[in-house]
Amino acid sequence: METMNIRMLIAASLTAMSFQAAAQTVTLKVAHFLPAVAPAQQKVLQPWCDALNKESRGRIACQIYPSMQLGGTPPQLVDQVRNGVADVVWTAPGYSAGRFPVIEALELPFVVTDAHTGSLAAWSFYEQHAQKEFDAFKVLAVHVDGGMALHTSKRNIQGMSDITGLKLRASGRMAAKTLAALGGSPVAMPPAQMTEAISKGVVDGAMGAWELVSPTKLDEVSRFHAEPASGMPYPATTVLTMLMNRQKYDALPADLKAIIDRYSGPPLVAEFGRVWEEEAAASRAKVKSRGNTIHQFSTAEFDAMKRATAPVEADWIKSMNDRGLDGSALAEAARDLAARK
């Protein structure tokens, strides 16, 4: 009888533990560098959080911290999620120069044509070539901004000669190298600072994705915009990632892990691409309605830019080779994946 009672107590204890595990709830601290009104939060991050909450019947919730509300600067977001200050971050690996060198292949000049195909390419490239450098994280998404246009306050850029001498905000290391190769003077600064910098004449404009135009009010301080013709690749792009603290993920019950997995990876990447394409179209329409000028580079201008930026790719390939990697193969893989429709 005593043995049976002990067994019943053990069984009851195990049942209680199983119930507690099943009922476990978690609130994810989600941080990023843009304002709360940005499409990144309103149209991707918040809907993602809402989907997790609904699918888990309230057991997964999010607290979103836009505009670096957890402190620090955008380059520190990677360390914030690694160290558990945030549970999830959306950021650009390129903000941490030299830390994620392989994924930079997608940021080489004239690789990415648009956000949709570019984001699918970025995820495929990550899976095939760049997983090792993200080992410390649970990777939820890898996508691109679709390519960066040139936005200027006073000069209508129609070719390389118009870029010469201009001080333009650049998002990261590869964009800065590309801009310098085109004759410009790159200036590093977060998106939140570039509109004021342009309005005060600190810089002449910015190299940035169309998605940034509305949330940063870039259209209010830029009269001129320049980009390749539709279907042609952009001079530069930014790779973006959504990363989760590995320990936070590993500590979750299996059913909550499964929910996060189901709403991450390819479906989340595709959603980023879709939203970025919509925002690009809306931003172009908005600047046109303000009477701003959008110039599309001619074939001759485009070819001249490609020739001028070829050394940027050559230098990157050499840097990869110096690390014991096949830089040429990585660059070729990025271009091949980005060209697929």
UniProtKB/TrEMBL annotation:
UniProt name for this protein: C4-dicarboxylate transporter
Coiled-coil ranges from the UniProt annotation: none
Top-level taxon of origin: Bacteria
UniProt cross-references to CDD domains, sorted A to Z: PBP2_TRAP_Dctp3_4
Biological process terms in GO annotation: transmembrane transport
PANTHER family (alphabetical): BLL6794 PROTEIN (PTHR33376:SF15), PTHR33376
Record-linked InterPro entries: DctP_fam, TRAP_DctP_sf
Keywords carried by this UniProt record: Signal
Gene3D superfamilies named in the record: Bacterial extracellular solute-binding protein, family 7
Signal sequence coordinates: 1-23
